[in-house]
Design brief:
By secondary structure, this protein is α+β, with helices and mostly antiparallel strands. It contains 14 helices and ten strands. It is elongated and about 75 Å long.
């Protein structure tokens, strides 16, 4: 057979074929990277299991993506029949390699989703206990919480542990504050929610990873079932002080406006539900879908509905205050109601680090009061709007559910 005839039987490469080949290669690479990261974060870089699977997966992938075998993949894609037994044998071998790789990967996928979170690990002191609560049998407004964290933080790693019992009155709820603590640039922040009361100090809630002793946080590891999820109830002089003073993070406290009492109460009840769920069954933290910010948004949206539209800033936690500003939940400036603050002014006035500088963090209830008052200096605290009647609230809830 002449060279010209042989050339005419070669598959003609088109942009579609090249695109499909490229997408297959990218899929193989990304799937291998995902599985290797899952193994590395579960077993550790020094484990023999990690190294064994790394060698096997990289060897298979390297063979599949090598030039001579990739030509065989191209033959398969083009449905080209060749009299060249060498090419045919390579295509057959490549089918077996693809099948072997696929089997290993799907087994890895099944293993990954079979990993269960646990309650009984060697936890770090600050997440060692789980908050629980009991409702008063004669007055359902009275909630007694146990294991409320109230540590004396001396440095970012040293503290004297105190787990308190505290009773709060839901009928005295007077507002909500959202605190953003920036620890890794302007895009990433840790979000906390504080509930204010008419005649008592605020109570803060924080969704966090439940770190094991000696463990540190990695945003990448948070995608791979590395950390259990924890819900902390704490005094602000603990959970905010440790960020603003002990760790030196930049912390901002934003009072949420245009809220009704039934909305604030419903959100607090959502936290109680989350306490029950995590105590009954542990859950995984996920950097993207189950983190400190978007879990709060999921709960708040159940309460407020369309007032909180979906927005990309829910996943970019550092921009959460700008989102709240845009949806009309940061608009309180009582000294000049006709001149609302700009977002720059909000950031300037709500920056609590200068206010908490040098605070004497001694363990006492009076000190908890003092810290909460000190960090709210020059920050307007909007009153709750008049609550709807129960009939109106029920009608609105029914209408939203029907939509």
């Amino acid at each position: 057979m002449s060279d010209s005839v042989a050339d005419s039987k070669q598959p003609k490469s088109t942009w579609r074929h090249r695109l499909v080949s490229f997408l297959i290669a990218i899929t193989l690479l990304l799937s291998a990277v995902w599985l290797l990261l899952a193994i590395w974060y579960q077993y550790g870089i020094g484990s023999i299991v990690t190294w064994l699977f790394t060698i096997v997966i990289i060897s298979l992938l390297g063979t599949l993506l090598s030039t001579r075998y990739w030509r065989a993949v191209t033959k398969i894609l083009y449905r080209h029949t060749s009299a060249d037994n060498t090419v045919t044998n390579k295509a057959t071998a490549n089918k077996w390699l693809i099948g072997l790789y696929g089997a290993i990967w799907f087994m890895g996928l099944g293993w990954f989703f079979s990993i269960e979170p646990k309650q009984d690990r060697d936890w770090m002191a600050e997440v060692d206990q789980q908050v629980a609560y009991k409702r008063n049998a004669t007055n359902p407004n009275l909630i007694t919480l146990t294991n409320v964290r109230n540590f004396d933080w001396r440095t970012d790693t040293e503290a004297t542990a105190h787990w308190d019992t505290r009773t709060i009155d839901l009928s005295k709820l007077s507002g909500i504050d959202v605190t953003n603590s920036y620890w890794m640039g302007p895009l990433i922040a840790h979000t906390l929610v504080s509930f204010r009361f008419e005649d008592d100090r605020p109570l803060a809630f924080s969704f966090e990873i439940r770190k094991e002793d000696g463990e540190s946080f990695s945003a990448l590891a948070g995608f791979f079932r590395r950390y259990e999820l924890s819900l902390i109830a704490a005094e602000e002089r603990d959970i905010i002080y440790t960020r603003s003073n002990a760790r030196g993070e930049q912390v901002y406290l934003f009072p949420i406006s245009n809220l009704q009492q039934h909305e604030v109460r419903s959100l607090f009840e959502s936290y109680l539900t989350a306490i029950d769920e995590l105590n009954n069954k542990p859950a995984w933290y996920n950097t993207l879908t189950s983190n400190c910010t978007n879990i709060i948004f999921y709960m708040a949206r159940i309460v407020s509905g369309d007032r909180l539209p979906w927005d990309y800033r829910i996943w970019v936690s550092g921009w959460l205050p700008n989102y709240l500003y845009d949806v009309g939940m940061l608009d309180a400036a009582p000294e000049q109601p006709d001149q609302p603050w700009s977002m720059d002014t909000w950031y300037e006035r709500t920056h609590i680090n200068p206010k908490s500088l040098g605070f004497d963090n001694l363990h006492s209830i009076g000190n908890s009061h003092a810290f909460s008052q000190q960090i709210r200096q020059d920050i307007p605290l909007p009153p709750l709007a008049h609550s709807q009647s129960s009939a109106e609230a029920k009608a609105k809830s029914t209408a939203q559910a029907s939509n």
